[in-house]
Structure formats: C-alpha cells, structure tokens
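Hi Y.,

Following your request, here is the sequence exactly as I used it, all 214 residues.
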Amino acid sequence: MSLATAMICSFGVGSALLAETGGFSLNMLMIRPDTLGDYMNSPLAVVFNLSLLAGGSCLLLAMVAVFNTYQDGLSRYLAVVGFVVGLSIILMGVFPVNFLDTHRKVSTLYLFSSVLLHCVCVLDYFKPGSTMSRRMLMLTVLALISGGALMALLDWSQLDFPACLNPFPHFCSVSLAMWSLTQANILWCVCLSFHMMKTIKEQQKVAYSWLENY
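Below is the corresponding structure, written out as tokens. Let me know if you'd prefer a different format.
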C-alpha cells in the first residue's frame, strides 16, 4: 500500500506539474505544490486532488499494515502518526486552495504530522528490530530539514507562507522546501514498502520453522 501511495501521488503530482509548466524546466521550482490543486487555474487540478485522495487512502492502509506487522510500542506510535499524515493528505485533496481557510489548516496538519513522523523515525532507527532502513533514515533527515525550513517560514497568524520574493530567477525557498518534503515523503513510502516486504518474509520463515519443529 505504501508503494501504491508513492505511485499514485507521483502520477498525480507529475501530471499536474507538467500540464502547468508545459514541460521540464527550472520554472518548476517556482511553483508551490498546493497550487496544482487550484480548480480555477491549474489545468489538471482534478487529477492532482484525486491522486491525493487515493494516495492518502493507500497510506492509511499502509499504516494499518505497519501497526500489525511491528508489535513494539514505538513502531505502533509511528503507524498512528503516519495514519494522521495519510488523513491530512486526503483532506488536502478534499479541500484544495479554493477552500483557502480549511486548506491552510489541513496543510499545516500535514506539515506538523510529517515532521513528527520523521522525528519518530529517527528514534525508531536506533532500536532493535527497527522499522527503518538506512535509506529511509537518509530520507527522514531530508524531510526533517525541509519540514523545519517550512515551519520557520510559516506565517503563524495566517497559517500560510509568504509570497516568494527571492531575487534569484527560477528559485523560491518556500517552493523548494515544499518539493523537497513532498519527494522525501514519496520516496520514504517506496522504501517502507520494500522494507516491510523483507520483514514479512523473515516473519514467515520464523513461523514456518516453528511449525516444522512443532
């Protein structure tokens, strides 16, 4: 399910972004991901928002699998926080920027829950039988850097970010941090799916050996 989350979100975001820019260019770094869901201006807003709904739903199911695969308390806490991340993704698809006040609240929930998720991932990595792999830890560090930058840039009075006024062309710190967090989360889901498959196979081997000895 986490792999499905990554594939669906990548398809929706990529399609909407290419439709917005007309092709690959540095102008992509100037576009905030949340504006791709604007029904009034984005040509593939429907695709983008539906991909958030589907991707968020798959992430919810993936976190249910994590909750049942790993029995320790920290992994289950990670699954609960990941469930909140998935729920916030769904809500961003239901309430795009056209519903500005609600969108600001759910996008802030996504930001905070993502940062909290990756904080738990760091703790989880250093416990025996970790849910995390080394690749996931690297993506976690990237997500924490991006999420921390966004929290520093967030206008707390409006729960939104300031307009990009950077003098350098094709560069916007807010957009770049948003894209970094988005890509880190997508790749994290990919790595999670492969790591879970490995863990489940190991658990099956243990169960089969126990049945044989029994």
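The radius of gyration is 18 Å.

Thanks again,
Q.
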